[in-house]
Design goal:
Blueprint: E1 4-5, E2 10-18, H1 23-37, H2 42-62, E3 70-78, E4 81-88, H3 109-116, E5 119-124, E6 130-136
Antiparallel strand pairs: 1-2, 2-3, 3-4, 4-6, 5-6
């Protein structure tokens, strides 16, 4: 789906990817191309790409797929702030960074998201799906967790 342009300084784009860990690469690639086209600064671009990769990986590992065995990856760009979100089919657990231990080999995804994001959160939908989102480069308009 081509990006929807709201005005000269705003981009709104959604892609659907298979509910599969390999889809993180597809999401990263699409996001990077879109943000490079809009000349987003390198730091925000790199952080957004890393965050979307972590969100896709977490959705595949900890949640179910949406109907059709897919995830929805969405991003907006408004006045230099990039918001990324990944919607999955939901989970019985809630997203939270896990406490780090020296012997831990997994569980760093949301710690990475928290480190890069200006803010992040999640929204549970009435249909059971969940959207995990993060704002990079500045504050979000969402302000809910």
């Amino acid at each position: 789906m081509p990006p929807r342009v709201r005005n000269l300084d705003e981009v709104d784009q959604t892609v659907t990817v298979p509910w599969d860990a390999a889809s993180a690469e597809q999401a990263r690639s699409r996001l990077r191309a879109s943000l490079e086209h809009e000349r987003v600064d390198d730091t925000t671009l790199d952080e957004a790409v890393q965050v979307v990769s972590e969100l896709v990986a977490n959705a595949v590992q900890h949640a179910g797929p949406m109907p059709g065995d897919v995830l929805r990856v969405h991003w907006t760009l408004r006045k230099g702030v990039v918001e990324v979100d990944v919607t999955d089919g939901g989970s019985s657990s809630t997203p939270h960074p896990v406490r780090q231990t020296p012997w831990q080999t997994r569980g760093r995804g949301l710690r990475i998201v928290r480190a890069y994001a200006h803010e992040w959160g999640y929204l549970d939908q009435p249909n059971g799906s969940r959207t995990v989102w993060a704002a990079l480069g500045g504050p979000s308009r969402r302000r809910t967790r």
